[in-house]
Structures are given as C-alpha cells and as structure tokens.
Amino acid sequence: MRIVIQRVKYASCTVDGIVTGKCDKGLLLFIGFKNSDTLVEMEKMLKKVMGIRIFEDENQKMNKSLLDVNGTILAISQFTLYADCKHGNRPGFTDAMEFNKASEYYDLFCDKLISNNYHVEKGIFGADMKIELLNDGPVTIILDSDSL
Questions:
Q1: Which position among 55, 78, 109, 125 bears the catalytic label?
Q2: Which of 38, 80, 99, 140 is an active site residue?
Q3: Which residues form the domain of 10?
Q4: I need a labelling partner for 97 at 20 to 30 A (CA). Which of 35, 68, 72, 146 fits?
Q5: How many domains does the chain have?
Q6: Active site residue 60
Q7: Banded model confidence at residue 129, pLDDT cuts 50, 70, 90
C-alpha cells in the first residue's frame, strides 16, 4: 500500500464539473493498493496517517497531528502509485490491486478514518478526477507499507 500525503491549505476533487469532496487545512491523501496488500498493511498505514505530526506548533516545528489542528482529509484513490516504468516509456500497472478489491479497500480505509473521528471527504473511485490543491510548505510525505 502506498500513500502520498500532502499537507494542504485546501484541496478539492471535481468529477464532471461537480465537487465530490474537499478539505480546508488538512491532508490530501493519494491512496494506492497493490495486489498482495492485506488488512495488516492497511492497519499499519492507518496508524501512520493518524499519528503523523506534520503540522507546525507554536515554535514552527512539525509537531502536531491532524486532530491537533482540527484538520480534515480529502482521500483520493490512485492506482498509478503502482506504475512500473522499468521497461519502455509506457508504465505498466500489473502490481496495482484489481479494481473491485481496491475499491473495497479504499472505502474501508476511509471508513476506518471516519470511525476514528476524522472528517474525511472523498473522490469517486475509478472516475476521471480533477484535483485542485494548495500545498502547504510544501510538505509531501510518501508512505509505503513495505517500508514500515
């Protein structure tokens, strides 16, 4: 499982001209699953996302979590995080999780965040999404379950 975390001032997802999700100060999560991911990897990644302290405290140190700053989450599914560019110029996606299972995992991941008192808005799984954001910092963190 891979998640690209961006600390944002705001972010929004638009599909067919309609905003499907947005957040103000908070985290934009691009979430991808690979074929071999299980609920074990998901739990590890949930703990990391919920505990990550990338918001500044009164001393301008990244020492506060999302809940500490009353932030929100915009969660976007992104199978392209598992692009394989080793051969040629056209990426392959054979490592990305199958569509239906990935959709279930994405929904479950978001539901678990919500059940832990996070305000989560989402894109539409598998849709052609237009993402607008203002990265704050910029702060961008890449989490990979293989590295945890």
A1: 78
A2: 80
A3: 2-140
A4: 72
A5: 1
A6: no
A7: very high
Tens-place pLDDT, residues 75-110: 999 999 999 999 999 999 999 999 999 999 999 999
Of 30, 33, 55, 79, which one is the catalytic site residue?
79
Question: Could you tell me if residue 145 is inside a domain?
Answer: no
Q: Is 116 left (phi over 0), alpha (psi -120 to 50) or beta?
A: alpha
Which tokens sit at 31? 């979430």
Q: What is the model's pTM?
A: 0.97
Query: Whose CA is closest to 1, among 36, 28, 53, 48?
Result: 36
Active site residue 33: no
79 occurs within a structural domain? yes
Strands 2-15 and 53-56: unpaired
DSSP classification of residue 92: B
Known active-site residue 79: yes
Nearest partner of 114 among 46, 22, 63, judged by Cα: 46
Q: What would the two tokens of residue 129 be?
A: 């999404």
Amino acid in position 56:
E
Q: How far is CA 126 from the centre of its chain?
A: 15
Strands 26-32 and 53-56 come out as unpaired
The CATH number for 6's domain is 3.50.80.10
